[in-house]
């Protein structure tokens, strides 16, 4: 009787602890969801771990297509930072698809129209948005690695057989049977077999553990796909039907992966601990994993489709949230997909997404734009502001401007290059290769009747003045051909005259007041008429003799176009 009371008390205690854990989890989930709903329309504050972006790009790398944004352009425009600032996704699929979307411009008006309708739907339908957000919140992330890093390497596991696990389980049953005839012998035999199984379990599980994690996530994907297909969300009706069909085809995986996903290791609750021991003793994980592995290998296409569809839906929610965070300081771009109006661009009151309190500028150009101006006056920032918005226009259909109008461009840049120490390439070699790739795309655009929009900061800065100006002139002429529009910044005032027929001249200027320098960052018509390099030396306290001699040499060069030796003697 006393044993029964003790057993009952233990049972009640376990039940109480499990119920308390359930309430805690439910309360935490409810609070987290409420915070998620309230964060809609705010800038993401998520912190990214070292190397995390390398894993986020895996979906993009697995889905290459023509005219995606290349690494040079992506890095020139600081797009990792732009991505992180706007990414409010809750799941790995949202993370990876948003990255893919930002590197994959749209060139079809029907695709863009459907994309826009989905973004607007979630912006305007709060209840449906909350349902969808809760699904992605439950999916969460895998951890450090991308799902594709596992499913692309399934061959490493080879062919796996369950027969040895089944034989070990039969031996357990035999030992239990022996206990009925001889308890001591049966007990010893059972302990030996259990030790053998547990040791074998840890040895085998170590090999498959990363893949078990990925299978659990696939199961979460399928659960989300099933629930999404049942939601009354009219804005993604086509996606819901496709998700429903993929879920139907993968019921075999769901059945075999159920026990793998039912209780995750390390939760700490009593039921999970008990189940962990059963896993080890009877090889439950390993048997179910091998069955699930066969199902995964036969349905990689369906898994990829589910990731794509769910990622696209969550990205629509994320883009709507980003738009809401801009407080109406954005526009829906007018993209001429047919290209009938030729190469041109119009942006009104454009600004850069990473700038606090930005100065907005406008430009209308039907031929190249050549920017001149003093150091730190705003040339590079303006180039990036136009370039980033041209990219956002054709990817998330959102521009940080009052107006954006242009044809569908292929986007390239050469702005923030560095010498390549590993390959031993000089800055000049890296630079001319970067520009060569743009020239090749311009030639291709002429053949295909497409349009290239390119941005170049200081053409051929890595070589001497005479050859730089001569070569730059010829390169810039090609970059402003009939099917190319080039925005370029330069300190070489000579180019403003040499290219005045091919390029519109704009400049940024500075104001020097009481030994201080101010930059209004406003785009002005015409070439620059002032320089500030020597003035900046003076403001930083350089020797007066250096300043005087430098000013004298500069004035004499501007008068007759020839450099004269300085007569200053060394101290």
Explained architecture:
There is one protein chain. The mean pLDDT is 86. The protein is elongated and about 115 Å long. It has helices at 2-38, 52-56, 58-62, 71-76, 79-86, 92-102, 109-124, 126-139, 148-151, 163-181, 183-230, 237-249, 251-262, 270-282, 284-297, 300-325, 379-395, 427-448, 465-479, 494-498, 533-539, 544-560; strands at residues 334-336, 345-350, 361-365, 368-373, 403-407, 410-414, 452-457, 484-489, 503-508, 511-513, 516-518, 524-525. The protein contains 22 helices and twelve strands. Helix 11 packs across helix 13 and helix 11 (183-230) crosses helix 16. Strand 10 (511-513) and strand 11 (516-518) form a beta hairpin. It has a six-stranded mixed sheet, sandwiched between helices. A four-stranded mixed sheet has the order 1-5-2-3, with helices on one face. Strands 10-11 form a two-stranded antiparallel sheet. The protein has 571 residues and is α/β, with parallel strands linked by helices.
Q: Would you spell out the secondary-structure blueprint of this structure?
A:
Layout: H1 2-38, H2 52-56, H3 58-62, H4 71-76, H5 79-86, H6 92-102, H7 109-124, H8 126-139, H9 148-151, H10 163-181, H11 183-230, H12 237-249, H13 251-262, H14 270-282, H15 284-297, H16 300-325, E1 334-336, E2 345-350, E3 361-365, E4 368-373, H17 379-395, E5 403-407, E6 410-414, H18 427-448, E7 452-457, H19 465-479, E8 484-489, H20 494-498, E9 503-508, E10 511-513, E11 516-518, E12 524-525, H21 533-539, H22 544-560
Parallel strand pairs: 1-5, 4-8, 4-9, 6-7, 7-8
Antiparallel strand pairs: 2-3, 2-5, 9-12, 10-11
Helix pairs in contact: 6-16, 7-16, 8-11, 10-11, 11-12, 11-13, 11-15, 11-16, 12-16, 13-15, 21-22
């Amino acid at each position: 009787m006393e044993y029964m009371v003790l057993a009952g008390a233990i049972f009640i205690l376990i039940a109480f602890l499990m119920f308390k854990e359930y309430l805690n989890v439910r309360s935490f989930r409810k609070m987290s969801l409420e915070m998620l709903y309230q964060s809609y329309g705010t800038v993401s504050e998520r912190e990214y771990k070292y190397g995390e972006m390398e894993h986020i790009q895996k979906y993009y790398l697995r889905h290459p297509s023509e005219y995606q944004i290349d690494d040079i352009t992506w890095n020139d425009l600081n797009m990792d930072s732009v991505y992180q600032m706007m990414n409010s996704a809750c799941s790995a699929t949202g993370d990876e698809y948003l990255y893919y979307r930002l590197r994959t411009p749209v060139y079809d008006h029907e695709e863009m129209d459907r994309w826009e309708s989905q973004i607007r739907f979630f912006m305007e339908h709060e209840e449906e948005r909350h349902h969808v957000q809760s699904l992605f919140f439950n999916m969460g992330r895998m951890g450090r690695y991308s799902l594709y890093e596992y499913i692309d390497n399934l061959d490493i596991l080879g062919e796996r057989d369950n027969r040895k696990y089944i034989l070990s389980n039969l031996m357990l049953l035999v030992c239990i049977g022996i206990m009925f005839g001889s308890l001591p012998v049966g007990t010893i035999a059972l302990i030996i077999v259990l030790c053998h199984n547990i040791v074998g379990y840890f040895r085998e599980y170590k090999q498959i553990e990363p893949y078990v994690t990925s299978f659990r996530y696939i199961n979460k994907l399928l659960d989300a796909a099933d629930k999404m297909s049942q939601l009354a969300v009219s804005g993604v009706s086509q996606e819901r039907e496709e998700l429903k069909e993929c879920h139907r085809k993968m019921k075999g995986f769901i059945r075999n992966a159920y026990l793998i996903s039912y209780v995750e290791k390390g939760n700490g609750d009593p039921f999970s601990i008990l189940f962990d021991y059963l896993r080890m003793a009877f090889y439950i994980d390993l048997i179910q994993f091998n069955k699930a592995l066969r199902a995964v290998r036969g349905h990689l296409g369906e898994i990829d489709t589910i990731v794509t569809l769910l990622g696209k839906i969550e990205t629509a929610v994320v883009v709507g949230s980003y738009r809401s965070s801009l407080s109406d300081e954005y526009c829906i771009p007018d993209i001429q997909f047919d290209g009938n109006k030729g190469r041109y661009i119009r942006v009104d009151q454009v600004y850069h997404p990473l700038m606090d309190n930005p100065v907005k500028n406008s430009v209308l150009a039907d031929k190249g734009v050549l920017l001149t101006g003093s150091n730190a006056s705003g040339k590079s920032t303006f180039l990036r502001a136009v370039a980033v918005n041209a990219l956002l226009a054709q990817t998330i259909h959102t521009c940080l401007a009052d107006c954006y109008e242009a044809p569908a461009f292929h986007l390239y840049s050469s702005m923030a290059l560095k010498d390549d120490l590993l390959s031993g390439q000089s800055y000049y070699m890296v630079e001319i290769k970067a520009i060569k790739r743009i020239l090749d795309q311009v030639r291709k655009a002429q053949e295909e009747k497409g349009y290239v929009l390119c941005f170049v900061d200081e053409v051929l800065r890595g070589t001497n003045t005479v050859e730089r100006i001569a070569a730059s002139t010829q390169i810039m002429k090609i970059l402003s051909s009939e099917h190319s529009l080039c925005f370029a910044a330069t300190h070489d005032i000579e180019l403003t005259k040499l290219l005045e027929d091919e390029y519109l001249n704009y400049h940024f200027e500075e104001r020097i007041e009481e030994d201080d320098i101010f930059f209004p960052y406003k785009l002005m018509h015409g070439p620059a008429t002032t320089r500030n390099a020597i003035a900046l030396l003076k403001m930083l306290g350089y020797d007066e003799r250096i300043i005087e001699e430098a000013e004298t040499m500069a004035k004499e060069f501007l008068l007759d176009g020839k450099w004269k030796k300085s007569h200053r003697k060394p101290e």
